[in-house]
């Protein structure tokens, strides 16, 4: 099945049938490929090839660079079904979420095509007569992309579509848990690029490797920007290394996203939003809802309604019409169980969280999503456990709810459910949520590509995707031109 998909996506079989790193599907634990993990030397060689590609690509006019991305977007449209299904096999996403991830890739390609004609700079009023000032944006250099298992293709495309229209080649190190989808993206890219005469060789490369390969990318002085998506632990290692060589980083790290549920909230809407954002992708989204901060007057009712809704959620094979697929691996399951134990020890009352479908899938890790009523925001609640656990805490007044929302080390996504305009505005104001994303009457997950995506504090501070996130992929230059016959100095200085 997986081999047939890879074949239709144009992946050379030698890339997934040789090597000693086995790739297992989280759906049933079956082996779906073997790949060879590269080390430092091969990463350095890839970066060398990318640096060469940069010399040519930066000279190609940006709208032509956009044309390459337009063609890549077309290839994705043609292969959406296969790539989406491959995402399901390799990352365990349900059909709709696998397809949705590819749709996100298509959307960012469309965005980047438009952007390729809008890499605008500024003209600035000069204080000197006969002078003009402007600000221009130039290609930056090699972009290194490190990605996580849970968005195995979309995160790469968010970076790569922008990096390429901005004039930069890309070297991508995907998660070692999801190398096959990366090989498929690369095969599609190569097919499109080979017919595009202005595209130099090695414009986009993939290096399949583990942490060592990631470190080689991080440390290579020819990599101008490292865009790294993954855990805060990883970011803590990557950030100082990139900073030590004064390169740039875009860090997209862990989240611990909350919903404030107020007394005026539309509870029907809230139940649907909570279900999708807490249970979807089996709780393995960076924007998954992990904390429900409910007003004491609605807390009991919402918990009851959620328990009823959770009990009806279909858990199972993600390609067979279920809503919750598996966790990525055993480690993830064990992490979830440890967190539930800790929650109990900290006074929590646990609903759900048990292993499911063990008989049918002894080598896979399905769980029923958990709801945990906590006496307060204790240590376990402040930690991101990458599994479907929803902690519920109560609040009395809105200021307290905002304080709870902000009282965790992460700062990715957040939301409030309210029909009170004062609460809605306060939540999105300077004294409201401290997160990169703050929504009203929408859950915290499922961002659109048009906005800048990312978060504060331990989430890393990076922004990707829409708005002006492209500026991280270019270097800014301030230009002053003197078209007069004099040499007036700035600040009125005379020097003779
Ligand atoms: P992870 O940190 O284990 O791995 C992510 C990537 O980093 C992998 O490619 C891995 O090989 C690489 N890596 C690990 N250590 C490294 C090092 N020292 N140097 C260089 N590379 C290194 O994360 P994961 O388990 O794959 O993904 C889940 C995590 O990712 C969660 O914390 C989730 O919140 C986060 N995430 C964040 C976003 C976001 O946009 N903020 C998006 C998706 C996932």
TrEMBL record:
Pfam families listed in its UniProt record: Aldedh
E.C. number(s) listed in UniProt: 1.2.1.3
PROSITE patterns according to UniProt: ALDEHYDE_DEHYDR_GLU
Keywords: NAD, Oxidoreductase
EC class: oxidoreductase
Keyword NAD among record annotations: yes
InterPro entries noted in UniProt: Ald_DH/histidinol_DH, Ald_DH_C, Ald_DH_CS_GLU, Ald_DH_N, Aldehyde_DH_dom, ALDH7A1-like
PANTHER family, sorted: ALPHA-AMINOADIPIC SEMIALDEHYDE DEHYDROGENASE (PTHR43521)
GO molecular function: aldehyde dehydrogenase (NAD+) activity
Protein name per UniProt: aldehyde dehydrogenase (NAD(+))
Quaternary structure note: Homotetramer.
Species of the source: Metapseudomonas furukawaii
Keyword Zinc: no
SUPFAM superfamilies xref list: ALDH-like
Aldehyde dehydrogenase domain ranges (all copies): 21-478
Family classification: Belongs to the aldehyde dehydrogenase family.
